[in-house]
Design a protein that fits this description.
Shape: globular
Largest sheet: 4 strands, mixed
CATH topology: Spore Coat Polysaccharide Biosynthesis Protein SpsA, Chain A
Number of domains: 1
Distance between the termini: 22 Å
Number of helices: 7
CATH superfamily: Spore Coat Polysaccharide Biosynthesis Protein SpsA, Chain A
Order of helices and strands: EEHEHEHEHEEHHEH
CATH class: Alpha Beta
């Protein structure tokens, strides 16, 4: 989209606030990974803590790394461009993570999903190694550390990568 999606509005509220409100009942707390440019705006939402991405431009893996640095327990990682986060999918991942460093979903007959993702703080070291090796994708981490949790075929929540897609999702309420 050419801008941070977390602050875009859907049904009158920022996408980041919607995600926090939807998933807060499943978590001990909320942490947003953000660029330095958007950190204050996310703090103003008062929806959670903000982890400033110390390695801007290195992709989602660097954002995850920033959030994991604040984590004391396992974390549920979701994308802010999903205006309707799926609690049922998040519950399934949290329930099935067990003692694994991470848990990620794969819809039956489909490929491993990058998000949502459950990660233990011990994934921080793996994220650092992967970033040092040039990885940027969350799939680099999930392929190495995640327990794969079978999910229903429609488990991928609708996301918006353009303003037009976001508007279309809002019209489909």
């Amino acid at each position: 989209m050419g801008r941070d999606k977390a602050l875009l509005r859907f049904d009158g509220r920022p996408l980041a606030a919607r995600a926090a409100e939807a998933l807060r009942p499943l978590c001990d707390g909320v942490v947003f990974a953000a660029s330095a440019a958007n950190a204050e705006a996310l703090r103003a939402l008062a929806a959670g803590r903000v982890a400033v991405d110390a390695r801007p431009g290195l992709g989602p893996l660097a954002g995850l790394r920033a959030g994991l640095a604040l984590a004391r327990r396992r974390v549920l990682v979701v994308a802010c461009d999903e205006p309707r986060p799926r609690r049922d999918v998040a519950r399934a991942l949290l329930a099935r993570a067990g003692g694994h460093p991470a848990a990620a979903g794969a819809p039956r007959g489909g490929e491993l999903l990058p998000l949502p993702l459950v990660c233990a703080p011990r994934c921080l070291e793996l994220a650092d190694r992967l970033l040092a090796a040039g990885a940027r994708s969350l799939l680099a981490l999930t392929r190495q550390a995640a327990r794969v949790v079978p999910l229903p075929p429609d488990a991928w929540a609708a996301d918006a990568d353009t303003p037009e897609e976001l508007a279309a999702l809002e019209r489909r309420r």
